[in-house]
Amino acid sequence: MIAEFMQLKLQNLMSDEQCYDQLRELRWPEGRQCPFCDSHRVIRRGFDDQHPSKQRYQCKGCSRRFDDLTGTIFAGSHHPLKIWMLVVYFMGLNLSNTQIAQELDLDKDVVHDMTAKLRAGLLEKKASEAGGHRGVR
Ligand SMILES: [Zn+2]
Fold first, then answer.
1. Looking at residue 18, what is its pLDDT?
2. Closest C-alpha to 103, from 120, 117, 89, 116
3. Ligand 1: distance of its center to the CA of 28 in Å?
4. Among candidates 64, 50, 49, 55, which has minimal Cα distance to 21?
5. What span, in angstroms and rounded, lies between the C-alpha atoms of 105 and 121?
6. How many angstroms is it from 53 CA to the middle of ligand 1?
7. Rounded to two decimals, what is the model's pTM?
């Protein structure tokens, strides 16, 4: 029994909602901030259609729209935020790319790309040049 039980996957113990909550806390400890103009005058604009835990916003400073991931390396990735969070977590435990790949059932090359991106920093160099949505009115 214990052998089967040890097959449990960490990602099944986490909800997407918890991951997004955690990201918002880490990213915006002082409250939500526009990735384009740094304004704190941000209003919520519902949730993403495909990712119900991803909050959307509109900046009252520059009118642009963004979401929890805009301006981060997670934006536009086809890996769920949960997987990224676990890669970060495992990096913190000093797991090798090979070990992380095994834990998450991912290809080692994929993990290599992810950890390389993470080491270069969580934020895109410039949100405004990284395909952020212009405010649509
Ligand atoms: Zn703004």
1. 95
2. 89
3. 14
4. 55
5. 24
6. 22
7. 0.83
